[in-house]
Amino acid sequence: MSHLRYSRLMAVDRDQVLRSAAALLTRRSTATMDEVAKAAGISRATLHRQFAGRDALVRALEALCIAECEAALAAARPDEGPAVDAVRRLIAEIEPNAPLLAFLYSENQLFEGEEQNEGWARIDERVAALFTRGQAGGEFRIDLTPAWLTEALYGLLASAAWAVAEGRVAPKDFTHMIAELLFGGVLRRDDPAPRKES
Amino acid sequence: MSHLRYSRLMAVDRDQVLRSAAALLTRRSTATMDEVAKAAGISRATLHRQFAGRDALVRALEALCIAECEAALAAARPDEGPAVDAVRRLIAEIEPNAPLLAFLYSENQLFEGEEQNEGWARIDERVAALFTRGQAGGEFRIDLTPAWLTEALYGLLASAAWAVAEGRVAPKDFTHMIAELLFGGVLRRDDPAPRKES
DNA sequence: CGCAGATGAGACATGAATGTCTCATCCAAG
DNA sequence: CTTGGATGAGACATTCATGTCTCATCTGCG
Question: How far is the CA of A29 from the C1' of D16 (A)?
Fold first, then answer.
């Protein structure tokens, strides 16, 4: 049946469009549908055939980001080994998606009363669970709530992604900067923050 | 001369309008000029007479925020005593303006190529100088650049302000959460993070 | 009282982005 | 070759926020 190949081709195109849209909106968060279409090398009509509107496009980007964050979460093996190392792995895994995450993070403020994608809640939960595990295992201090640590991690990821995009910090320092600040804080100590991984 | 009283009254009204606009835009970043006017209890015409347009309004809010951040910076006495305490004072002083800061922080992404208010550069510089002082004095670790620490502080302030607005964390923990994470990091230690102030 | 200045209400035009539509073209499968 | 499906180009209407304008009203002051 031809419509099977059709579906498959559409899926491929859709993903390519989504990627280029992510790349563009990451830089220019107010880009119009016209610009998105041009950036993807397709016409606005085709873009509209794949995504009912700008809203649908952003929702699709949200779904993509959620999927990749969940993949990152899985790849980071959050239940394995010391929580410190798991968080470090998580940051490293999320790094490629940090710009998109930052875009959606600020875009969410526009989704005022509208329903939030429940995917974020799932991710929040798993990240918070990782921090909780670290606290239970005695690795992390217990006077900062997992909810705040999760929120702070998002904030640091977004800040770092933005700082890198603006050229204020070097891209190669991304993971190290976030992890070091998150783990060790800014205070100098005689007992430096332990490095469980290389 | 009547126009003197007029100027004074305008100034007062202008400030009131600015405050209510800040309060509204902090919650609904996409509020229209109509909503801003209604929130301020004036008509859209009068709002337009005081601020040429939405752009001018945001610029005015930016100027207000910069002024208050500089006031907070001054009140925090960044050159006085241990840098740790100075940063803690700074966070506490900025706290009331954190929501507005968070709004402008995300709004800045829309000011793509446009000129940035040089006030932010001044503030960045002074905050970075505070971190540099802490590093020079041996209080802060030197493997994280002052530029990144400054950026991270903004990110944490914005994250915390948003988390508080969303009801995910308690408002009273604001300063403590940020300071503790920024200073001590998340790792538990035998030697806890020193508390120079209460 | 009479006036000047400020305000509120609302009409109106503008511009931008969006969503919808049609039509010509192209391409690959039959 | 022929045809169905996808595409690109572009016209078109719609919506929404904005910016500008006018006019009636109100208020304080002389």
Answer: 20
